[in-house]
Amino acid sequence: MIKLKMPLLAPEVDAAALKAVQPAVRRVVDQLYKGRCPGSDMLGWRDLPLKEDSAELRQIQKLARKIRQKADLFIVVGIGGSYLGARAAIEGLSPALPGNRSGPEILFLGNHLDADYAAELLRYIKGKKYYVNVISKSGTTTEPGIAFRLLLDHLRRTLPAKKVKERVIATTSPVKGALLAMAEEFGFHKFIIPEDVGGRFSVLTPVGLLPMAVAGIDIGKMLKGAAGMARHCSENRTLGKNDALKYAAARHLLYLAGKPIEILGVWNPALLYLAEWWKQLFGESEGKDKKGIFPASVGLTTDLHSLGQYIQDGRRDLFETFLVIDKNRRKVAIPELEGDPDQLGFLAGQQLAFANQQAWRGTMLAHRAGGTPNMTLHIGKRDAFHFGELFYFFEFAVAVSGLLLGVNPFDQPGVEAYKKNMFALLGEPGREEERRALEEQLLKIDDSE
Amino acid sequence: MIKLKMPLLAPEVDAAALKAVQPAVRRVVDQLYKGRCPGSDMLGWRDLPLKEDSAELRQIQKLARKIRQKADLFIVVGIGGSYLGARAAIEGLSPALPGNRSGPEILFLGNHLDADYAAELLRYIKGKKYYVNVISKSGTTTEPGIAFRLLLDHLRRTLPAKKVKERVIATTSPVKGALLAMAEEFGFHKFIIPEDVGGRFSVLTPVGLLPMAVAGIDIGKMLKGAAGMARHCSENRTLGKNDALKYAAARHLLYLAGKPIEILGVWNPALLYLAEWWKQLFGESEGKDKKGIFPASVGLTTDLHSLGQYIQDGRRDLFETFLVIDKNRRKVAIPELEGDPDQLGFLAGQQLAFANQQAWRGTMLAHRAGGTPNMTLHIGKRDAFHFGELFYFFEFAVAVSGLLLGVNPFDQPGVEAYKKNMFALLGEPGREEERRALEEQLLKIDDSE
């Protein structure tokens, strides 16, 4: 099981501070399990891995096998939670170089509005056999909505109607919405997103599982890892026995101690998208009511030659959480070089993994000495099982952490503000007055020096 | 020329505040041009594009043409400034999908210590014709040093000695260091990094230019863009006439007004690595003496469904700088969909670029209304010329901004701390005592609960 080590959080967080926060932790964990907390209608993620629907799982696996055999390309259309979880797992667990991967190439659309990218993708898919997995609870979200229009249009122009429907899989609400209606009307293959699971908590539903299975990831093992962590959390509700609680409590204490920025530092480039998923999960759950830890991320050792300077010597309002994979998949020994011109000869014959490990160990101490408290989350191996543990670990931790902060960790009211303006500016019927008012404000910006 | 619009920084930064800071700006700009500032031995970047060495440029272009014809792969070995600039330009200006790119595939090694990635790359290059561009002033930096050992070892095991030397290009110090010595001993092709240009300011030297040229980027045009901006900055030393100065002054004022986090928001996924380059440039230049703006980045609209919630509603200690490309390369019209199930029908026939533009315009106003001041940097087109302008714009701005803050923007003393620990832990001869002391501290962490 993944393991948290946090002695380098002291003096800001020590045994006494943890002891003092234990009653508050106990209270919010009780609320969470009794379903008596803010956002209690969105607690579906909590027991999700424990209620594994094996019929659904088999269905996903069967469809994924078919797609792996038949497709050149698999295009995932989604944004936010309908994008980041699948991508985090796929980039995290697949070979890094696309040329080394098996199965269809996996591309993502509908997570931005960039015309150059869309044009390129539309050119790239010509003559290729591709499947589209469109993921949206409502089906009316702008970015995936437009992307799906583009792809459906392309499918229809190149294939007969009954072939088109075979190429589309809709992952959506089980009870309502535009995408559900379309899936039923056109006969698309359909998977459901439980109503009580929010986007950023949906990685272990078909939202994440189908793209992962198409990428060749063992989703059964992932769910097993997640279920183990879910049981562990449910059965161990005190700080001393539950590292997810410790993580939640520690970061809350650090926030109160004047450290409002958390940097997730990953020691393997494969984990960079996991950091993006983590930033959504924590930033969107906690960043409200003018509160919340600001989540940032670094890739290491890469960014020790970049943000490393800031972390070592800049403003002292940061803390770090390192993600360390204890056991690499492959071994690479550092070769000899005659004459030792680079002065690295003392490393010859050593494993590269050993060098990475010493870099992490040296960095922990250096950053602590510089005034940046840090902790390390140890993940045994980079595999589906441990990713399952990790996904659940962070979901549980952010729920506790958000509740400790006094916010509803399960809503995202601020996401509406840009949408509202955007729709008016795009000319949505009935919003003409609003549009005029916005254009007036914008005119002043255009005219400014 | 790229253009900054900043009315949405008010009330934190308004005309009066800018006027008040003008004398300080004037003072540091004078210091900068007279070479009388902290770090004045590292001002080589200042006039670099104005002193274009056309013989060197032709040499780079000639070698790049040869490599584009002959190579399957081009592997760039470097970290920090010897990595991020080239990658920012290549990802920013090349087609997004590797399958749409021309010339050799470009891979990066030596920017981390991950064994899985290295093993994969070593497997991937088997049987392929590859060139290695090793970039390091000293040649003794650990990450690129080890990567170069791996690749040189592989080359030697698969090719005769005189072929090996044709496959390696060393970009290094002109006067000293391990890599220079190796290049001379083995007869590698050699390009130089001027002694007075620091890593993060080196993108417009052969460090960045050779990989870009191999990627098919018109480096002549890039240098022209940079030279234009360099001339503009030199000839316009007041806030009213120089947007790079305005940017520097505005962010300094925001910092003083209690906004220590700057988020660079890019509206095109192609610019995500440019944001990484920017984070190094600003974080490493300013993050010292317990001071400095913390640089973060978001991809948009992607992260409006992620960190967007925080930016709208979280702690009010942020400001944003948007990078907007005014003119897309390609056009994509949003298609009709009969029955309008997704309710996006009012967009049918509109350009995707129009949607992206309204998203940006709506976001500016929404974030300002939520309490996040923001400004926008307009880049006419996503091409080499404008990237040249932009690179210089940011280099100049960070120099001014760092000097306003009262730090030396050209050093990075904090980068040594992790290295020192790492070398001792790796068993460097002569550091046994230090190693024992570090291992003792680490033992306590291993033993902790």
Walk me through the structure.
2 copies of one chain form a homodimer. The first copy, chain A, is an alpha/beta fold. Chain A is 50% helix and 13% strand. In chain A, β9, α14 (352-370) and β10 form a beta-alpha-beta unit. In chain A, α4 packs parallel to α9, α11 crosses α15 and α12 (272-286) runs parallel beside α15 (384-405). Chain A is globular and about 65 Å long. The model of chain A has no long low-confidence stretch (mean pLDDT 97). Chains A and B meet through α5, α6, α8, α12 and β8 of A and α5, α6, α8, α12 and β8 of B.
Task: Flag low-confidence runs of chain A.
Answer: none
Helix content of chain A: 40-55%
Shape summary of chain A: globular
**Terminal residue distance of chain A:** 58 Å
Features:
homodimer, 449 residues, alpha/beta, Rossmann fold, 2 domains, five-stranded mixed β-sheet, five-stranded parallel β-sheet, 10 strands
List the helices and strands and how they pair.
The structure is a homodimer of 449-residue chains.
Chain A: E1 3-5, H1 15-34, H2 44-47, H3 54-70, E2 73-77, H4 84-93, E3 105-109, H5 115-124, E4 130-135, H6 142-158, H7 161-166, E5 168-172, H8 178-186, E6 189-192, H9 206-214, H10 219-235, H11 243-256, E7 261-266, H12 272-286, E8 294-299, H13 308-313, E9 318-327, H14 352-370, E10 374-381, H15 384-405, H16 415-426, H17 432-447
Parallel strand pairs in A: 2-3, 2-4, 4-5, 5-6, 7-8, 7-9, 9-10
Antiparallel strand pairs in A: 1-10
Helix pairs in contact in A: 1-11, 1-15, 3-9, 4-9, 4-12, 10-15, 11-15, 12-15, 16-17
